[in-house]
DNA sequence: ATATTTAGTAAATTATCGTTTACTAAATAT
DNA sequence: ATATTTAGTAAACGATAATTTACTAAATAT
């Protein structure tokens, strides 16, 4: 295995705990419902049902039901796709967005607390290195 | 919000897609069962039932049942905790480990493919930056 | 010694997940 | 024009997930 791939996989592994926190269900949502909201939040544009069901590897038949539940609870909106009358686009409501942001707040808090274990110079190094990784990972996506 | 925290959160977000892939169920395992194996794999030491159930935010009563199912299918072992006779420690079997490694292989392949979008120098930059991030994140955990 | 906490189990019940088959209507291909 | 594909819905059924109450036995506290 390439050295660079090892670093990549170790990076995911190192961030695993924060990831885990993302996955935790909030109050009255099931794991899957939460994953759907999370997926919508991360892909911060509107998505069709198909895109969601493929992204999460859940059959569209099931996704229909799951989304209906989220809609009834006020987490998402559903409107016709302007470009394709057969399909619908799903968006987070304010309630939906808030439910996700709360998780980020916890991750943020945790990170800030742990930061104190680095000295000033190391913090700047970390910031710069993360910036570089972010820049290059994005470039790889295009 | 601190700039460094922004970079951190963006980093998680950038790695999210790969992580999603981890979460996809393999063959005959449910989402939750898969998450349990993943959790064991990432925390590559032996864990007690309590640790798993707290880490995944699943009640211990449910965890008992879930683990029994994984045990019956040969993914985990369960043995008495030497330090506390009330508790048991859970470990992945070879089958359990393999099931997780297969997912990593896919993530690895994807990454290697996308790498071609960077030139030689950028690849080295990325490798070095990730190395630095990994080093400092680990230091923060202690 | 006794009381309280802690780790895990058991069983029952409801809700959700996961899959399959079948359907409608719009989009696309021939 | 007609046939085929595509996006989404509906309903039904078995398998899990999630929650609650109650229990055992070891560990810890008083």
TrEMBL record, chains A, B:
Cleavable signal peptide: none
HTH marR-type domain: residues covered: 1-142
Keywords tagged on the record: DNA-binding, Transcription, Transcription regulation
SMART domains: HTH_MARR
GO molecular function, one term: DNA-binding transcription factor activity
Top-level lineage group: Bacteria
This protein's name: DNA-binding MarR family transcriptional regulator
Lineage summary: Bacteria, Bacillati, Bacillota, Bacilli, Bacillales
């Amino acid at each position: 295995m390439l050295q660079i791939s090892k670093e990549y996989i170790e990076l995911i592994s190192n961030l695993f705990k924060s990831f885990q926190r993302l996955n935790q269900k909030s109050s009255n949502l099931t794991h899957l419902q939460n994953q759907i909201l999370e997926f919508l939040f991360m892909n911060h544009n509107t998505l069709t049902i198909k895109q969601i069901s493929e992204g999460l590897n859940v059959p569209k038949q099931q996704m229909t039901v799951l989304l209906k539940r989220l809609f009834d609870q006020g987490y998402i909106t559903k409107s016709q796709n302007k470009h394709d009358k057969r399909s619908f686009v799903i968006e987070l409501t304010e309630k939906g967005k808030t439910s996700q942001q709360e998780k980020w707040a916890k991750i943020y808090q945790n990170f800030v607390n742990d930061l104190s274990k680095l000295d000033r110079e190391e913090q700047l190094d970390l910031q710069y290195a993360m910036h570089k990784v972010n820049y290059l990972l994005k470039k790889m996506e295009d």
